[in-house]
Amino acid sequence: MKSKFFNLNWKDFLKGLAVAIATAVITSLYQKITEGKLFDIETLKAAGIAGLAALLAYLLKNLVTNSQDQILTPEK
Predict the structure, then answer these.
(1) Distance (Å, rounded) from C-alpha 25 to C-alpha 35?
(2) Nearest-angstrom CA–CA distance, 70 and 50
(3) Cα-flanking dihedrals φ and ψ of residue 54, to 5°?
(4) Which helix (H) or strand (E) holds 4?
(5) How many Cα atoms occupy the beta-carbon half-sphere of 47 within 13 Å?
(6) Residue among 27, 18, 17, 19 at smallest CA distance from 48
(7) How many domains does the chain fold into?
(8) Which domain holds residue 53?
(9) Domain membership flag for residue 46
(10) How far is the CA of 3 from the CAs of 7, 13, 16, 66, in angstroms?
(11) What CA dihedral angle connects 30, 21, 13 and 3, to 10 degrees?
């Protein structure tokens, strides 16, 4: 069941968490490859911030989307 307009459910949070984790991993790997150094605290901080931003963006998108995947459209 999809969440309604201006509502979130547990599936939204779990999917958002998956997006956040994937974003953090990809960000860490990208930085490691481009900088050529092992993981350090700055890399982990950047990955965490990117993951948090991805989580918030996903939840915001789901908050303003109705159960028919229409953005900024109330339920019919």
Answers:
(1) 15
(2) 26
(3) -65, -40
(4) none
(5) 18
(6) 27
(7) 1
(8) 10-63
(9) yes
(10) 6, 11, 13, 7
(11) 50
In degrees and rounded to multiples of 5, residue 71 shows phi and psi of: -80, 135
Residue 71 lies in a domain: no
Token digits of residue 19: 């997006």
Cβ count near 6 (within 10 Å): 11
* 17 within a domain of the structure (yes/no): yes
21: β partners: none
| DSSP bridge pairs for 71 | 65
Model confidence pLDDT, tens digit, residues 2-57:
778 888 889 989 999 999 999 999 988 888 888 887 778 888 888 899 999 999 99
Give the C-alpha separation, 17 to 11, whole Å.
10
Residue 3 covered by a domain: no
DSSP H stretches of helix in the chain:
10-35, 41-63
Instruction: Quote the pTM value.
Output: 0.78
